[in-house]
Amino acid sequence: MNPPSLRGRLRDALLHVGGRGDVNEVDLGAAVTIALRELASEVLGERSRVELVTVGAAHHPWGRSLGLRLADYDVELPDVLLSADQSDLPPQVQESCPTVSQEEWEAVLLVSKLVLTGLQSEPEPGRDDAGHPPRVTPRPPRSVAREQFCQALAALSERADLRQDELTGKLRTALLNFASETPDNKDAAQRIAVRHTGKPRQGPRLCLSRSGSALAKVVLSADGCPVPSRVLEEFPDLTQDEWNAVLHVTGLTLMAFEAEPAHDME
């Protein structure tokens, strides 16, 4: 059996974040960090800022969950993407993906936020542990909707027996079941599709249904764009490097759920 690819290792590590059972959070975070850095080294080289992102716990009124977050700013990546809602289409994206529209850019940000949220662990009751959670904690099982969403994402690279229209239908349904059928979510779901794109022709990838651009490529092509004003309004101390890190990790996460590629990302 061939060893997992760089994408496969990152995909497996991310799916374990929300997995059921006793989890050593230090080991879990290390596995994600290593896999991110390995894939980033191949895809981004010296531009990579993924080292600014870690796996950590967020404490909410409804419980404690584990997911990707900025290490020094202490904010979840989905929250940063949420604050970028309705931000202008970056010139870098227009140059790299000239057919992508403003509406599609907003859909990419929304779907990316939902993907990162779906990969988080299920919220569990908070603990009075003086700020020091135990190294090993029992992880509650994913909800049915979250599990179906994760399975639909994983199917892009693991279910070669399914046609792209089947993969698209399952992913759209799972996304809306997980995120709720708000008008924005329904619009974003219709703007994505599973496609075989690239030269040479590649396996299934999560793409924009109209332009055909892969979501991973769109996000990564925004690398280096100024921090959107809407993001700075919400997080005034967020640095350019941290914004780049959010884009890098988001793009690599989307890439991890693509079928194995040719070396060139289209």
TrEMBL record:
Domain of life: Bacteria
Region of interest (Disordered), residue spans: 120-143
Name assigned to this protein: Uncharacterized protein
Taxonomic lineage from the root: Bacteria, Bacillati, Actinomycetota, Actinomycetes, Kitasatosporales
